[in-house]
Structure prediction request, 547 residues.
Amino acid sequence: MKTVIGNLVDVHQQRIYPADIQIEGERIVSITPNPGLQTPNYILPGFVDSHIHIESSMLIPSEFARLAVVHGTVATVSDPHEIANVCGADGVAFMIENGKTVPFKFNFGAPSCVPATSFETAGAALDSKAVEDLLQREDVLYLSEMMNFPGVLSGDAEVLKKIAAAKKWNKPVDGHAPGLRGEAAKQYIDAGISTDHECFTAEEALDKLQYGMKILIREGSAAKNFEALIGLLNDHPDSIMFCSDDKHPDSLVEGHINQLCARAVAKGIDVFKVVKAACVNPVGHYKLKVGLLRQNDFADFVVVKDLENFEVLQTYVNGELVAENGKSLIENAQLATGKAINRFNCSKKKPEDFVVPFTGQPTLSVIEALDGQLITNDLSVQPNVEAGNIVSDLENDVLKIVVVNRYADAPVAKAFIKNFGLKKGAIASSVAHDSHNVVAVGVDDESICRAVNLVIQEKGGVSCVGEADAIVPLPVGGLMSTDDGYKVAENYAAIDKAAKQLGSTLSAPFMTLSFMALLVIPHLKLSDLGLFNGDSFSFVDGQVAKS
Prediction:
């Protein structure tokens, strides 16, 4: 029997009082008010990230847990969509089994859109039968984000079978419908889809809330919607959750859901509403086996210094102290590289593979990257032509972007992009949502080629070439490292700094780069098959440069 004391934040009774919490084994056996207790500390339910791709942390689940518990996170609702696009159901199984090796509550879903579209090359496919096979598992809790909202609206048979399978097994369906409004949003929600984390305006979120959808306020390393949406928590405390979606390792070292709590309270939002969004609502919606500070609940909770900064002093999972005073108590158990699941089958490239011949077109469709957003704009730009080829225009910050098929040797897809800001060199990544081919941006073909070949050589990673060549290897699916999480975070921070020293003004250049092949987010993106318009869901005629 162990006892933890502090000011208990009782969300259910909407009160805060000094209490002794007694734990036996995995559960809370009693909560006793202690009026004479003098302590400045507060006890809260553990934080839950209601939608995250663990793979984007570049850490395997066991390492993600080591870092996350320091910030009071006890559970995640995790979509293994990224590894599934590379390795299929085997990738999902890898994530589940690795997650079980640590005291942390991973809650994985069955990826609904593998591949995300038919307009790109992925490493695997999960049809409705494969999805139902996953949903039958007790350790698969929901159908992951249904990104194919056009398929839902048009009644695509495979899409509807996947949703039907989730209903059959009584598991919720996550949504993904950026910009969907009005009757189209109602139709999408009425199909059985219960959440959305893609709202980027309060008006869009309110539109979906009125039809019964729950809104996940996302604040990750690339997409940041907190400021636009947090006001909704005042009037809709039962329908809002917090999530990060994608969080890079250096960002995870700094903080997690606890940071969103501090920001929300600083805006004057009632602390009980904040705790509901951060801790309680995900547990109820997804039926998680996570305790909420009641007698007989699992002992999953955090002790924080105050209810302003939410600095975490202790984190408990199933009654076990897993973090204390900024230090993780979960042991590092690195995965042997030889056990890393992966699929990477392309050969190194030559600079001439990246040449874009000028064919006389007066304008180019150019992707405009937006800092802190997954959406992009579609610009019409006059091409910069030298020696008969279209090349990067550094003066106007229009650089070449390429996507290389990593699953087989194939022609390189090429286009141009604005706002990366590089003045020399190139960056490349095999983290390229959602099919995870190799994406690169650079000022010249030689630099782009070097950056791409570094990634190919390691069978996955993020690379930067400029004054010196650097890479963070990601041998697990080309997405995750086998190394210590804090070391990965340090190495990633260094390569991020190197990219910024090349001129990039983006707050997270590699994270932004990773979404430039994400076709399901408007407006203009590049897949390994060509330049793609996310509004018309079709390739851009006359703008597909391949060789």
